[in-house]
């Protein structure tokens, strides 16, 4: 598939896909006219990269984990990185839930029904 098709299939911009390729995160072949061509596995790979980036992993860390993405196994060094990132994401998720709960509390106390209940 060409870069525009990959962009449409993944929700990534063409610019982002070019960046991923420049960083070594994805690979492409070239057509005779120089267009980038991606294999069928590229869709899942790009979706995974986008999830990792959204979780806060920098591209240099994702690049270190590229091998375990392809074979589903991690070396001891990769495992250390994966565990550290998982722990960081767990803390972030906990912090986000705490923030959401606090927002819910403020929202609940700010509704007209809550104001009436406090007045009585």
Sequence-ordered SSE layout with sheet pairings:
Blueprint: H1 3-10, H2 14-22, E1 29-30, E2 36-37, H3 42-54, H4 59-64, H5 66-71, H6 76-110, H7 112-119
Question: Would you write up a description of this structure?
Answer:
The chain is mostly helical. It folds into two domains: 1-57, Orthogonal Bundle (Multidrug-efflux Transporter Regulator, Chain: A, Domain 2), CATH 1.10.1660.10; 74-120. The chain contains seven helices and two strands; from the N terminus they run H-H-E-E-H-H-H-H-H. Strands 1-2 form a two-stranded antiparallel ribbon. Strand 1 (29-30) and strand 2 form a beta hairpin. 11% of the residues are buried. The model has no long low-confidence stretch (mean pLDDT 90).
**Alpha-carbon distance between the termini?**
66 Å
Fill in the CATH topology of the largest domain: Multidrug-efflux Transporter Regulator, Chain: A, Domain 2
| Low-confidence residue ranges | none
Number of helices: 7
Helix content: over 70%
Structural class determined from secondary elements: mainly alpha
- The proportion of strand residues reads under 5%
Number of domains: 2
Question: How are strands sequenced across the largest beta sheet?
Answer: 1-2
Mean pLDDT over the full residue set? 90
Proper CATH architecture of the largest domain = Orthogonal Bundle
CATH class group of the largest domain: Mainly Alpha
Number of strands: 2
